[in-house]
Specification:
alpha/beta; Alkaline Phosphatase, subunit A; eight-stranded mixed sheet; binds 2-acetamido-2-deoxy-beta-D-glucopyranose
Length: 283
């Protein structure tokens, strides 16, 4: 191979690599992290959650969808939860954000702490402290019963994906029951969150055009409104700012649809606000 041919091959390869990474309007990757069952008013008093809010923009008017946990997760990826007001396993035959992403060749993964399955080993149950009800992808037949299930992985893979620079573009991260505030409260969740977010935030590669969304599935049931703490962090949003627009968990789906021009699932996400990125429009 002569020098010109080599340069040609390198060019073709790098163009190919660029094409397989789909640029978004505001961000190129999204990293969604779900905590559990705490009211906004309690969460914002926690010193760690408060400090983390200052790393980005606090969504001051953000709501869970319903109770109990599971339907909030289902709605976040599917735009509806079809009256599944239960935390028992459900098997749904509907499309999700995965169908929209894959139609545009946008990669995705569900990182689940303590998930005992993996590639060619779709684990369909729960094994404490991993709970299937907090991993919404597993509830949809067209994921669970296909090769797509390989995209549900133990959260330890995140570190490897960062090292290999092979992060997917849509990432959903569920901390286990001891880290997500479910069983150890805000104290447990904040001792997890502090080092977790510091580690990611200081990683230049990870944060490169990545929007981090930290949210809660629902409040503690005692605050009728279901208002929850949600913070967005990344180079495309302000630091130490407050966003007063009204959002709920469907807003995450709507934001993803708008960011990559995915079209719409045509469900409840059509009736909510996508996140506002006042200062930045790339396209
Ligand atoms: C997705 O990738 C496949 C295989 O590389 C390609 O044939 C197809 O045109 C791509 N689709 C889009 C929307 O880019
Ligand atoms: C960020 O990503 C772009 C491509 O989207 C790349 O050109 C750039 O080198 C990356 N920067 C860092 C610090 O990784
Ligand atoms: C967005 O604009 C506001 C007001 O002009 C400014 O205070 C803030 O720093 C900007 N944020 C970013 C990410 O540029």
């Amino acid at each position: 191979m002569n020098f010109q041919t080599l340069i040609g091959v390198v060019l073709v390869l790098s163009i190919h690599a660029t094409c397989s990474y789909v640029k978004g309007r505001w961000f190129d990757r999204i990293f969604i992290v779900f905590f559990e069952n705490q009211a906004y008013s309690q969460t914002i008093k926690d010193p760690t959650f408060k400090a983390v809010a200052e790393m980005g923009t606090l969504m001051n008017n953000f709501y869970g969808l319903t109770h109990p946990s599971q339907p909030n997760y289902l709605g976040t990826i599917a735009g509806n939860y079809w009256h599944r007001h239960i935390d028992l396993d459900v098997d749904l035959d509907y499309t999700t954000v995965v169908d929209l992403l894959e139609a545009k060749n946008i990669t995705w993964k569900s990182y689940q702490e303590d998930y005992p399955g993996g590639v060619n080993n779709c684990f369909k149950g729960s094994q404490y402290p991993y709970m299937r009800k907090h991993n919404p992808f597993m509830s949809f037949k067209n994921i669970r019963e296909t090769k797509r299930c390989d995209n549900i992985v133990n959260a330890k893979e995140l570190e490897e994906d960062i090292k290999k620079k092979s992060l997917p573009q849509y990432m959903f991260y569920t901390p286990n029951m001891l880290n997500n505030a479910h069983d150890t409260g805000l104290k447990g969740a904040s001792s997890f969150l502090g080092p977790f977010i510091q580690n990611l935030h200081s990683n230049e590669h990870f944060m490169n055009n990545t929007l981090v969304v930290l949210t809660f599935d629902e409040d503690d049931y005692y605050h009728i409104t279901n208002r929850v703490y949600t913070v967005v962090i990344g180079p495309m949003v302000g630091k130490n700012q407050i966003d007063e627009n009204q959002y709920n968990l469907y807003s995450i789906l709507k934001t993803v649809e708008d960011n990559w021009n995915l079209g719409s699932l045509g469900r409840r996400e059509e009736h909510v606000n996508a996140f506002s990125f006042k200062n930045k429009t790339r396209y």
